[in-house]
């Protein structure tokens, strides 16, 4: 299996790139986020890859980070999520925000991706909730999951308050997680929001 490629970006398209590795051009499908992160034609880049093989097709899917590739593997493990939908989700939602959405049960955020309806979004959230919590290495998944579960609804409300103040979901989730750790499960909503604001503004 090809796990990683390093070479010169020979060309890019809407959903793919060709990377030249010692004279061999590899066609790699990728999300819009990955294509933007890797660079432009003639730049050198490292692409983390996942190979998908079916009866009549074989393709390489590329990612700018191992984290994004790990998320792709998780997503495509859910029934109804193929490679195309997995890439659509990663194009629309950053890994940190995806961890927060799944941890807090926010299927509506997952449904923002093209090709993901409400039923599929709910299935993704339900099936991955425990898996994301067990994978601390994926975008702070365990930490964000703990935030959603700890302190009843106060953590959720605190994250919403920070989001309303303009913080990204990933930033809000991390800040509230830190506040929950410091203040404990019995902290008031007001105290959580105040401390989370301090942590998010660092």
Overview of this protein structure:
This protein is 52% helix and 20% strand. It folds into three domains: 4-63, OB fold (Dihydrolipoamide Acetyltransferase, E2P); 66-137, DNA polymerase, domain 1; 154-201, Helicase, Ruva Protein, domain 3. It has a five-stranded mixed beta barrel with strand order 1-2-3-5-4. Mean pLDDT is 83; it is low at 134-142. Helix 2 (66-76) crosses helix 3 (83-92). The protein is an alpha+beta fold. It is built from ten helices and five strands; from the N terminus they run E-E-E-H-E-E-H-H-H-H-H-H-H-H-H.
Summary of the model, kept short:
By secondary structure, the protein is α+β, with helices and mostly antiparallel strands. The chain has 3 domains: 4-63, OB fold (Dihydrolipoamide Acetyltransferase, E2P) (Beta Barrel), CATH 2.40.50.140; 66-137, DNA polymerase, domain 1 (Orthogonal Bundle); 154-201, Helicase, Ruva Protein, domain 3 (Orthogonal Bundle), CATH 1.10.8.
Question: What's the structural blueprint in terms of helices and strands?
Answer:
Layout: E1 4-12, E2 16-21, E3 24-30, H1 32-38, E4 44-54, E5 57-63, H2 66-76, H3 83-92, H4 95-103, H5 107-110, H6 118-134, H7 141-149, H8 154-164, H9 169-183, H10 189-200
Parallel strand pairs: 3-5
Antiparallel strand pairs: 1-2, 1-4, 2-3, 4-5
Helix pairs in contact: 2-3, 4-6, 4-7, 4-9, 6-7, 7-9, 8-9, 8-10, 9-10
